[in-house]
Amino acid sequence: MTTIKTLTLVDDDDIFVFLTTKIIEQTNLVDLIKVFGNGLDAINFLKENKNNVDALPEIILLDLSMPIMNGWQFLEKYNKLNPTIGKKITIYICSSSISPDDITRAKTISEVSDYIIKPITKDKLIDLIKKL
Asked: Could you state, in chain order, the average pLDDT of each consecutive group of 10 residues for the chain (132 residues)?
């Protein structure tokens, strides 16, 4: 089965991050998990490493509700940055929001591959990685 080098979690919920990290580790499909507690730190990392494809993740799991820079704001910045990034990054919104408005809005953003309602399961993670 395909493995990926890096998966990035952008989420400020320590419990979700801890549990999701454990689930990802159990799959044995991801070499490195990077965690950012807000969108600003994540977007700054992407800007700093846009030409270093080895440092960039294959997948980003993005929460919507975070301090400093939320998921929507991250996506706005990412949309502008994306053409300069030397690697295709697959972004999944991973949120506890079940709002139809959020789900519909996410589907209008071309950089978002899917909307996943928390919690994320091991089977779902394996499916995401297989789709790459």
From this structure: 89 95 93 97 96 94 95 96 93 94 93 93 88 81
Contact 116, 124 (CB under 8 A): yes
In the chain, the domains with their CATH numbers are 4-130 (3.40.50.2300)
Enumerate the β-bridge partners of residue 72: none
Cβ burial of 109 (10 Å; 0-12, 13-18, 19+) is middle
Q: Mapping DSSP to helix (H, G, I), strand (E, B) and coil, where does residue 80 land?
A: helix
Listed residue (92, 115, 91, 117) closest to 104, CA to CA: 115
For residue 119 the two structure tokens come to: 């919690």
0.85 surpassed by pTM: yes
Q: Which two tokens stand for residue 66?
A: 């975070």
Do 130 and 5 contact (CB within 8 A), yes or no?
no
